[in-house]
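Q: Fold this one first, please.
A: Sequence and structure below.
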Amino acid sequence: MSGRPVARTFDQRLAVISKWGEILLRNVVPICEKDNRGHTQGHGTGLLVQRGEANFLVTAAHVLDPLRDQRRLFFPCAQSGERKIVGRILSTETPVGKSRKEDLVDIAVVKLDGESQPPYPEIQKESLEFSCLRPSVLPRSGKSLFVTGFPATRTKTHILNKNVELRPYANMCSSIADDKYPDYGLKPEAHIALSFDVKKVYGKGARPIQAPDPAGMSGAPIWLLFDHTAENHPTKNEVIGVVIEHRRAQKLLVGTDISVAIELIAKLS
């Protein structure tokens, strides 16, 4: 995307984050379920993708695991409308002898069936073109990356009027050095390890603020804004990975390379 703004001061950088957060959220939806009282709870984040005439939802596999227990998951498709997550699902398999929490791939794709297909103009949501999924962007360091998602702690149900407020979160970030990936049991070819310390996020005037708990950010897309290792910056909004895990003690958000989602979409097409 040409003509991307350059942030020269800290507050200008925040303005850039706000602007791009609004733009990139057009392709991102909160994945929700209702509790026993009928209150909506944030459960994860999903990316809408279109390939040909078909639409897909890309997220972390563990976000959709409740569907195996016949729980109902959905995402908003209108101001007061819900789109039940139904359709053919393909997900990565949990390694033998390990739990989903130990799954270092953790990706699922749903081919959306039935009515209520994107776009959803009422809430300004549409699918991202399949060609905007860019795999294997190496090295991981030297890039300005962007994460957009819906933390569960920012989902609020107003009991009196029964309205649901789904507040997104966006953050510009960068990868750790490629040679540090093995220290965390990761591989730069397969993962994207983003530096993320909830206690070192800053607001206007460079004031430190508390970032929201990333729970619910699983499935959030990782966007490539700038590539400082290449002569040319991206000319379109490109997704290079999907967030699967927050490692609080290690101050990391861990993502899986988007190549896995590309393979699953191809199998479903």
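Q: Good. Now the second chain.
A: Here it is, same layout.
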Amino acid sequence: MGSLTRRMGGLSANLRTSTEDFYAVADLDTARHLGALMWILGTAIAALLLPITPPTDSRLGAWGWLVAVAAIAICIVIAARMLQRAGGVSPNELLASSYVAVAFVAVLVWLAGSNSPYEGIFLLSVLYTAAVHPPRRVLVYAIVLVAAVAAPLAYDGWDSTLAAETAGRLIIWVALGFVTMAFTAGVRAQRLALQRERHEATAQARSDPLTGLGNRRAFDAALAAAVERAGRTGESLCVIVADLDGFKEINDRWGHLLGDECLVCVAEILQRVLRSPDSCFRWGGDEFAILADTD
């Protein structure tokens, strides 16, 4: 029950997430490979069904073979492109491939007749689209899918039995798509939580807990980046390292709590007087370091 609640919570969060933020945490490379696998599987199923259910039921007659073979060839090209695209594909390209898949199956159904088994391939596209894209886009896709599945009722004429069978298939497919979307939403929610925890841990590892300034580790990283930038742009860079005079006497005479207050006060003053491009760090103990874009 707890797992189901988390997944439904993830789905609810996905409904409120913008498209850009949704894809920002998506593993598009895995989605690309999964899409290629779906295309290969769907194309293989269609090729195996062609001899069993010839694409000759439409007005094209025997010419339907040429259209079907051309459609399969296009599918092979799409699958190969998704596999070999070194730079990856965009979310819009992945979504476009889902619409092309719907068109591909709809053409096969039109060529072979409304009672052909090609409609089953629609399910591959439904599951893939529900797993990869945000709910808003899946909803638009679902509308197109319903139109494609119901198309035989328009060009072959109304048939109550066929209409009932079509409605039943659509209900099952939509339910499976919803389950897939809920599952991936839970996985995505867990991934977001892990990313937040990692970012928080990284920030804590680079922050001085007393003053809130960056620590020595943060300084080392910032210095390396600043040196690289200065070398590339030719701009000046200044590194200032200083400590507090008599700080040990403050600790010895007044105690470490007051010494800590002194460090916090100095950190606040440094942050207040620094220019916006410059940055300040607690080097360690009573030592502070400043990176400044100046000579």
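Q: Anything worth noting on the second one?
A: The longest strand covers residues 238-243.
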